[in-house]
Each structure stands twice: as C-alpha cells, then as structure tokens.
Write a structure and sequence with these properties.
With about 270 residues, this protein is of the alpha/beta class. Helices cover about 30% and strands about 25% of the residues.
Length: about 270
Amino acid sequence: MTPNPTGTIDLTVLINGHREGPLIAPAIRSAHAAIHPARARGVCCELLLVLDRGDDDTRAIAHGLLGADERLLSVDVGDPSRARNIGVENARGTAIALLDGDDMFGRSWLADAFEALRRHRSADVCLHPATTVIFGEERVIWRHIGADHPDFRPKNTMFENYFTCLSLAPTCLFRRVPFRPCALSSGFGHEDWAWMRETMHHGVRHLVVPGTLHAVRRKRSSRLVEARALDLLPVPTPLFSGRDMLVASSAGGGPPRDETPNCGEQA
C-alpha cells in the first residue's frame, strides 16, 4: 500500500465478517480483484477486515488471505451495525467501500465508484452499483436507480429499500451518520434501510454508478432473513416527519451538487 503523493489513503475497503468460514474467502478475493484496477488508476487503497465474534475457522482463513499491510480487527459486540461503525472509526481512507463477509464486489466497482465520487466533489453523495446479483438460497437480479432517475421516489422508501448496504461514500458521511444498532427483539431492524433513509433526511443523494455490480449471498439464516420472518419495521428515522419530506424530495430529485466535501479531519 503506497500512499498517494499527498500522503493520504484514498479508499478503505471495509469488510465486516462474523462466522462465515470458507465463505469469507471469495469476499476477500473479490476485494483484492477490485483493488487492483483501482490502484492502476492511482487510487491508494487499504483493506480492513472487522470480525465480530469471529470463529477460529473464519479467522484462520482470513489470516491466510490478507496481505502484510492489510488489517484484521477482532471485536466482541454481537451487532453488525456496531461492528461496522467500529470499522468506520478505524478507517484511514478519505472514502469507504463497504462489503459483507459473504458477498462480493464486481471487479470494476472500486475504480469506477471512486472516480465517480471524485467527479461529484461532494460529501453528501453515497454511491451504489447499477446491479445487484442475489445468489444462494434466492436468485434475483436487482437493477438499481438513483436519486437522479426520473422514477426515483423518496416516499417509496417508506415501504421498500432501494439499495443494499454495500455502498461507497466519503468517510466523513459514515461518521456523521453512523449505523443505528438495533436488537431484533425490539421489533425494529433493517439497519441498512434505516441508514439510507436517515442520510436522505440529511440531504444525501444516493446515486448509481453505471456498469457496476455486486454479488450478494442469500442464506437461510441471516440478519435480513430473521428480520423478514419476524415482520420487523425499519428503525424509525426523521425522514417522514413534516418538513423533512421537503428535504427528501430535494435529495431525490434536485440537481447534482458541485462542491468540495467538508469532511474535517481524517484518521
């Protein structure tokens, strides 16, 4: 990992793992495959793996695949949102790309998405792939639309999630709006859906990077499957409270912003 001429790291690839076992290997390999073309375009990348209550099998496989300059952080919080927030706090890059421990990046994702983030020059942009391929226990191809698409309706996020959590955004955005921890026993869940709505409340534009994709594994046992089975509601956010609908409408359909991110200090 060679820093760019300014001495900073551009992008942290943040992988969140748990007890994936052999399934964590394709995730790490996909991150390596996506980092290579990003570095070829001059993007200084680091990889940070956060294992929350990881088992010995997962940890051993990860250690065998991580490079000498890549970090593994073991935590004991038992919550994907809290673990992801810890990863964000330990990220050294000016931007972060999220990846779950049993999912995979498309090869061009990091290079194309970081280039798009540079073009937008805004701290209030979060980028998503154009396509998500769901595989495993469920097989679906999910085409995404962003806030600049004429069919994007912020009010629809009350009933459906437009995206997965596998996004790329400025580190300062993830720190300003952290993921909300939520025990399934509370009756609320879907933390990634809630994060998308809360960032929209803050005026963030969720946009799609053309020609990119992620592969997301669906398993019989996962946080999403449990939330669906329990018929949980998304964690409440202020998006649909009074005048905040005006903010959401602006974030969904207004013109792209052209400003320099005001991110404050980076780690």
